[in-house]
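>> Question from a student workshop board

For tomorrow's exercise we were told to take the sequence and the ligand below, predict the bound structure, and bring the output to class. My setup keeps failing. Could a helper post the expected result so I can at least see what it should look like? The ligand is zinc ion.
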Amino acid sequence: MSLIKAKGIVLKEILVGESDKIIVLLTKELGKISVGAKGARKSKSKFLAGTQLFTYAEYIIDYKIGKYYIKEINIIKNFNFKTYDEICYSSYFVEMIDKVTFESIKSEESLYLLITTFNIILKNILDIKQICAIFRFKLMQISGYQPNITNCSFCQKEILDYNNLKFFIEGIVCSKCNSNIKQKSIIVNYTVMYAISYILCNDIKDIFKFKLDELNIKIFYDASELFLENLELSFKTDKFLNTSS
Ligand SMILES: [Zn+2]
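>> Workshop helper replied:
Here is what the output should look like for this input. Compare the format with yours to find the bug.
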């Protein structure tokens, strides 16, 4: 028997049969994996709490004939999100990570981003839309997508004048070129461009250390939504995001 220890977060729960579950875990050691949890839905199961969505735990896993099974769970933290917004956005974040991460590929950075984001949500010190925009830009960068922010996406000239800038799916466009954009775009300002560049240039532990005002949060959030279109993915959970606040 080969037992493996892996620390990770539950991204998804899939119900199987009458009382079993398969959970999708994002782990430090094994990347994203699907793990069987026998009897996890029984009220007296020792796996009941540790296999819930958003749980961060150390999992002792057995590997048999190409499949992972849970043997033991030591919970590190249950992220108990309470408000409608907290639950909606957290569900969206795990869905995003699930969609951009491939099975069994090292994803330590995504895991660290998710844990850091969840801790920030629970601290209740930042607007959830600002948290969401930061999460999107950083996850996109980890996944290999980076917007042009220092030079115009069209003429390639360095941006020196921050008036009349526009942002579209590839990044920034200068005031001289911005009438040529055919795709969807939004007007951005120096503050928002600075916020985006701050996220891209800094470590995950520091990316939540700034606060924007309401107007700039809206522009920043819209820019992150636009940039996300690079992924060409649809999400089940994003339709709930704009129904509150
Ligand atoms: Zn230009």
